Amino acid sequence: MKTATFKPYSLNFKQASGTSRGVLTTKETFFLEISEDDKKGIGECGIFRGLSYEDIPEYEEMLQWLCENINENKKVLRKELLHFPSIWFGYEQAMLNLKNGEDIYFPSDFSEGYDSIKINGLIWMGDADFMKQQIEEKLKEGFNCIKLKIGVDWKSEKEIIKELRNKFSKDELELRVDANGGFTFEEAKTVLRALSDLDVHSIEQPIKAGQHSEMAELCRNTPIPIALDEELIGVLNFDDKKDLLNQIKPQYIILKPSLVGGFSGTDEWISFAESLGIGWWITSALESNVGLNAIAQYTFTKKPKIPQGLGTGGLFTNNLETRLVLHGDQLMMR
Questions:
Q1: Dist. CA 282–CA 274, nearest whole Å
Q2: pTM of structure
């Protein structure tokens, strides 16, 4: 018989971090522990307040329900937790860790420390000087794929991208941008043309989620690839996922396991995307090192062909210990 408990944990940022949802100083998360005989497994239920589909008052009640029903059939649990994707994700992690022991979720050359995953360098929102400082640091560290958050001050952001492109060709430096829905439909058309002129690789979520016909039109006519991100959040049913990709036909989708239903939810999205010739990459969502480790191990098993959006665990002052290390732009386990 299995038993389960959960506990909340507050991650503290080393410095306030700007996002499209304001400036973050802390990040709330929950750890789920499942025990059986003398073994235990840990998973992280990484709710993202203000972004997660399940950001509702009943969240902790559902965590308690899972702990009380931990021996229930897996299909029953998934059905009950369908609208709580990060809790389901924590359950998947904890069960895999219970099976594999130590800090292992997906045994592989990556988890054994023999292979690595190439990641992009993330530039946080801020004034021009702050963004330039971050870019310089990433370039010194050896990143040749950088992702910038845009959509707050487009004029300044465009100048930063132009400066970068004047220094580095697209073969030397891949530039991705993430608008987090920061532009209107008409603004997005102009922005897409400007980004194309600057040889930007792709843009995530140029307009707010939920405008399916407008997003489909942008994807049909865009001069650079468009990636869906927030558009996927809350799309939980098998047929709805298929319908969304068929209607919009983006060039890429961005998959955050904590927000799209864990490993199984991510598997579904990847299966649909690949059947339609749509590319993808996997991104962490400010999880602690527990969730990040699980996501990284999973990502390696998907044999990614382009840089992934995985964090490094270095944002927080009180993160948990990890074997994850970064060598240049290669994420590894020591």
A1: 14
A2: 0.96
